[in-house]
Design goal:
Order of helices and strands: HEEHH
Low-confidence stretches: none
Shape: rod-shaped
Length: 73
C-alpha cells in the first residue's frame, strides 16, 4: 500500500474507549470511517486534476495515469 493511502486510512480511523472501570481494565478499539476515507480519496483526486495546478491541457488518459501513480496502483 502506498504511503499516502496509509495516511488517509489513519485520518479515517478513530480510537474509542470501550470500557474504563480502572487503569488496567481500560480497553480501546479502532473505528474505520469508510465515508471519511472515500471523501479524502475524492479530495486527493480533485487536487490532482485541479486546473489551477495544471495550466497546460492534459488528456483524460494522462490524468488517469497521474491519479493511479499518486496512489501507487
Amino acid at each position: 500500500m502506498n504511503e499516502r493511502i496509509r495516511e488517509l486510512v489513519a485520518q479515517s480511523t478513530t480510537i474509542e474507549v470501550l470500557s474504563g472501570r480502572g487503569f488496567d481494565e481500560t480497553q480501546y478499539t479502532e473505528r474505520f470511517n469508510k465515508e471519511k476515507f472515500a471523501q479524502l480519496i475524492v479530495e486527493e483526486c480533485l487536487f490532482i486534476i485541479d486546473d489551477e495546478r495544471k495550466p497546460e491541457m492534459v488528456s483524460r488518459i494522462e490524468l488517469w495515469k497521474q491519479v493511479k501513480q499518486h496512489f501507487g496502483v
